[in-house]
Design the sequence.
């Protein structure tokens, strides 16, 4: 589960452009679902991987709820709940660690080995979504073949996961403010009617 240090060859991924695309997506909307969907799409394309998903901790902190995914089948998406207590990988990631699983089809730490095999998933890299030192979810990158990720790959994904967590936090604050504003406006409307 250690980081790999080899660098991509000439013609490798242009992470600067990819990170710019992710930042542009985040700034385009305060709708958390739309932002997460676009991030998953951008990451999948930029990393040239099979799929990407973002999962957020449920309100009780016991499950990871799907925020968005790109490249995964409906069958795989609805394979069953991600229960933190049953997922050794997610327990580690929720403590702030980045985890690489070389082959999830044979790794006992992966919760849904058989479903991953049926989906054609080999390697998975999982990163925490952290805001103000609090992990609010995970970003997962899935590959069809066994893949080792370079330090540049991981640094790019760490930047994306940080931006994603900030975007989620901002969208949540926006929603709370909107609800408060709507309640205040409704209350004022009622008082003015008296």
Sequence:
């Amino acid at each position: 589960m250690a980081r790999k240090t080899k660098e991509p060859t000439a013609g490798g991924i242009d992470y600067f452009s990819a990170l710019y695309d992710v930042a542009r997506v985040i700034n385009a909307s305060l709708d958390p679902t739309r932002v997460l969907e676009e991030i998953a799409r951008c990451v999948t394309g930029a990393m040239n991987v099979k799929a990407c998903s973002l999962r957020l901790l449920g309100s009780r902190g016991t499950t990871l709820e799907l925020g968005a995914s790109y490249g995964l089948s409906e069958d795989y998406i609805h394979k069953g709940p991600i229960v933190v207590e049953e997922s050794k990988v997610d327990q580690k990631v929720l403590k702030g660690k980045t985890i690489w699983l070389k082959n999830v089809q044979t790794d006992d730490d992966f919760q849904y080995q058989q479903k991953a095999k049926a989906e054609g998933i080999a390697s998975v890299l999982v990163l925490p979504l952290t805001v103000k030192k609090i992990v609010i979810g995970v970003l997962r990158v899935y590959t069809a073949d066994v893949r080792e990720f370079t330090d540049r790959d991981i640094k790019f994904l760490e930047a994306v996961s940080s931006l994603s967590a900030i975007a989620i936090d901002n969208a949540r604050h926006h929603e709370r403010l909107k609800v408060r504003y709507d309640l205040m406006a409704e209350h004022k409307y009622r008082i003015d009617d008296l």
User: Anything to note?
Assistant: The radius of gyration is 19 Å. Confidence is low (pLDDT under 50) at residues 1-11. The chain has six helices and six strands. The beta strands are 51-57, 63-70, 82-83, 99-101, 124-131, 134-142.
